[in-house]
TrEMBL record:
Its cofactor is Fe(2+). It comes from Myxococcus xanthus (strain DK1622). Belongs to the carotenoid oxygenase family. One of its GO terms (biological process) is carotene catabolic process. It comes from the Bacteria. InterPro entries: Carotenoid_Oase (IPR004294). This is Dioxygenase. Keywords: Iron, Metal-binding, Oxidoreductase. Transmembrane segments: none annotated. The lineage of its organism: Bacteria, Pseudomonadati, Myxococcota, Myxococcia, Myxococcales. The keyword Oxidoreductase applies. The keyword Transferase does not apply.
Length: 738
């Protein structure tokens, strides 16, 4: 490794971390060394405080074929690659860009709902002299079972094969008799205390993956530790959780629990639906005992149970946990129609839009005091846990993503949120569907989520005063950068993620992040009329108003931007026509600490359709590298490969060089690694018993003999001996105990 590529220094044995607990309007967000370690002997002689790429020029990128979504956005190569080279197409790859960027997303193909597709995980590896990528499909037990069930392994004939096979829905692929396929496809997330790398989803449990092979090996929690979103006897139950958990870094916990085993927070929830009232639970994974503790949320103002539409992201501060009810409403009528009549698309579409309801016009934040989260035997019960009070605040506009500054001086919580009031991911484009500009959805667009808002988005900086129970908000918009805000790269400069990743390697943050430098990196889909159904516009017309206010003809291009939290300022790069960008990820310079940890690069995946203007070896799917201090000049390097075909992706995280070697699920000390026993999790005797006794549990006063037809029908439809064979031969062997 080049001498220039040294993340250091390592901590001095006497080094200790301190944290500000009070301050002005915007508290400092990074720790400082009480006794700084001596400078690393291998530090480069250069005195430059900028990353190497700062001096590199921006590149001119020719436009793509046409405005709007490229066809490439809905194509993913089914081939899995290992250490495949990424070639420099144009520009220069900086030597101090090093480490690993993990990317999660759906393995998409036109005609299939993107967000319900199999999970795809990419690892982009950067080192002196080059870059490589590795890709893998996320295979869970229900994934392996599905292959056999769809092939007819459990069928007694055409009817049972039709009943058992999995059908495509917007939320997940669902079997009427077995339940949904669990598909982690949304976000990679590191669990510091267990040294595990998770991949998450909104419709299932997080799954841990091997950071080198990318193979999924254990879910977080046994099925019995989760509350089902639907009261069905399914072998693969529908579970709803948050795709972005929250964690408490180890050194911040003080004496509350073992410093090496921080807490992890997520949700277990179900929206209201025709046959159920719904519920919202906050869950903490006790990394000391590896158990899930549940608390059911109760509105502190009304005393009524909290029922959220969707909880895509949550955040933790020193004294509070914050949940965002987001723009991802679940319509069970729509999903039921998709599962029941897959051969009648017009019926599905009619049910979808007749039963659709708009997302909440404002973001709803629920705040829970950490001091109220006391564990007890009752919190281990996922179905009837104790209640905990949650305080409701609303502001800005609807949204999916936000971050919280860890410190909450004087009980004031600072949140930074991306607000897209009419972004509604509960729908997908359907072939032939009427669009807002009078065109029709083309076959190659089918399955893309309706992620383009029908109003301009904004960034919100919110301060929640928990003593006075008030919220104060500032909203910031920009015509180039806040049409269609989707995901942002949380560089760890807000929530401590980057700091935690460095700490696992023994590195420390030895400089405070200046308030004026606190920033988030975001991507925007812009506004493209060819991605907005007329029915979606009609659903949100009371909010949007007349079409004449929308840029239907000219549109707004996709972009990447940097939002400065303290000033509300935007800096960014507008992508050329015909290019779409996904998931920008901040990567600090490998010359840290000489270069401050908030300076470095932004790594982003982009797609366009092939044209003669593309460089040799480019498929139109590329990796672009930006100078984090000057996005506006454009990419300084473009990487690609004839084998790089990934399409739409979602979220990312960054691991410094060497950290992947530590993340094999082996906690510090003499502690057994966490691993769910899939044979126990999917015990066939328990599964069969649940199906046969299900009506009796729902109607306990009805004589058992009256349910004999149910038991006979279930035995015939499920074919338990064959299902047992599928689990034993095609599922269990893929998940040996560690």
């Amino acid at each position: 490794m080049s001498q220039r590529a040294c993340y250091g220094p390592r901590p001095h044995p006497d080094a200790a971390l301190t944290h500000p607990t009070s301050g002005g309007v915007m508290p400092e967000t990074e720790s400082v060394l009480k006794h700084p370690a001596p400078a690393a002997t291998e530090a480069p002689p250069s005195l430059s405080r900028e990353a190497d790429g700062h001096a590199l020029p921006g590149l001119h990128v020719p436009p793509g074929l046409r405005p709007g979504m490229p066809r490439n956005a809905m194509t993913t190569s089914p081939v899995e690659y290992v250490n495949e080279p990424l070639r420099v197409l144009v520009g220069t790859l900086p030597e101090d860009l090093q480490g690993h960027v993990y990317v999660a997303g759906p393995s998409v193909h036109a005609g299939s709902p993107a967000l319900a597709s199999d999970g795809l995980v990419l690892r982009l590896d950067f080192q002196v002299g080059g870059a490589r990528f590795t890709s893998a499909t996320m295979r869970t037990p229900s994934h392996y079972a599905r292959q056999q069930v769809d092939a007819g392994a459990t069928a007694r004939g055409p009817l049972t094969r039709l009943l058992n096979r999995f059908r495509k829905t917007t939320l997940a692929d669902v079997s009427l008799t077995l339940g949904p396929q669990e598909t982690p496809n949304t976000a990679p997330f590191l669990v510091e205390g267990e040294r595990m790398l998770l991949v998450t989803t909104d419709a299932g449990r997080p799954w841990a993956i091997h950071p080198k092979t990318l193979k999924a090996y254990t879910p977080l929690g046994y099925l019995r530790e989760w509350n089902r979103a639907l009261p069905t006897p399914w072998a693969f139950p529908l579970l709803q959780s948050t795709a972005h958990p929250a964690f408490d870094p180890a050194e911040r916990l003080g004496p509350r629990i073992n410093k090496d085993r921080p807490r992890l927070f997520f949700t277990n929830h179900a929206p209201k639906w025709p046959l159920g009232a719904g519920y919202t639970q906050l869950v903490s994974w006790d990394t000391e005992e590896n158990r899930l503790n549940h608390w059911k949320l109760m509105d502190a103002a009304t005393g009524e149970p909290v029922v959220a539409s969707s909880l895509h992201q949550i955040a933790a501060t020193r004294d509070y946990v914050v949940l965002l009810d987001s723009n991802f409403p679940i319509n069970f009528w729509q999903i039921a129609a998709q599962a029941a009549v897959p051969f009648l698309p017009r019926v599905q579409r009619a049910v979808e839009w007749l039963t659709a309801s708009p997302a909440a016009p404002q973001a709803v934040f629920w705040v829970v005091r950490r001091a109220d989260l006391q564990t007890s035997p009752g919190t281990l019960d996922p179905e009837n846990p104790p209640f905990v009070s949650a305080h409701r605040f609303q502001a800005g506009g609807g949204g999916l993503h936000f971050a919280a500054i860890y410190e909450n001086p004087d009980d004031v919580i600072t949140l930074v949120a991306a607000h897209s009031p009419t972004e509604d991911l509960s729908h997908t484009l359907q072939p032939g569907e009427l669009l807002i500009n009078g065109n029709r959805v083309q076959d190659w667009q089918a399955g893309m989520p309706t992620a383009v808002p029908v109003t301009r988005s904004s960034m919100g900086v919110h301060r929640i005063d928990m003593k006075r129970l008030r919220i104060q908000s500032n909203l910031y918009s920009h015509d180039d950068f806040t049409w269609g805000l989707t995901v942002f790269s949380n560089a760890g400069l807000v929530n401590g993620e980057l700091e935690a990743h460095f700490r696992l390697l023994g590195h420390v943050m030895n400089a405070k992040l200046p308030t004026k430098e606190l920033a988030l990196y975001l991507n925007s889909d812009g506004f493209t009329a060819d991605m907005v159904p007329e029915a979606l516009y009609q659903l949100y017309k009371p909010v949007v108003g007349d079409k004449s206010a929308l840029p239907i003809r000219d549109g707004r291009a996709a972009s990447f931007c940097k939002f400065f939290v303290d000033s509300g300022r935007f800096e960014g790069y507008v992508l050329p026509t015909g290019w779409f960008g996904f998931a920008p990820q901040f990567v600090p310079s490998a010359r840290f600490p000489q270069v401050p940890h908030w300076k470095g690069y932004v790594v982003a995946l982009v797609v366009s359709d092939p044209t003669p203007d593309l460089p040799e070896n480019s498929t139109g799917d590329e990796v672009w590298i930006f100078d984090s201090e000057d996005l506006a000049k454009g990419p300084i390097c473009r990487l690609g490969s004839r084998n790089f075909d990934v399409g739409m992706t979602l979220h990312t995280t960054f691991l410094p060089p060497g950290l992947a070697d530590l993340l094999e699920g082996q906690p510090p000390g003499n502690v057994a690694p966490y691993c769910v026993d899939v044979r126990q999790d999917l015990d066939m005797d328990a599964i069969e018993r649940t199906y046969l006794e299900w009506p009796q549990t729902m109607l306990p006063r009805v004589p058992r003999v009256l349910f004999a037809p149910w038991r006979l029908g279930v035995k015939w439809a499920l074919n338990f001996p064959k299902l047992r064979q599928v689990l034993q031969e095609d599922v269990y062997p893929h998940f040996p105990r560690k």
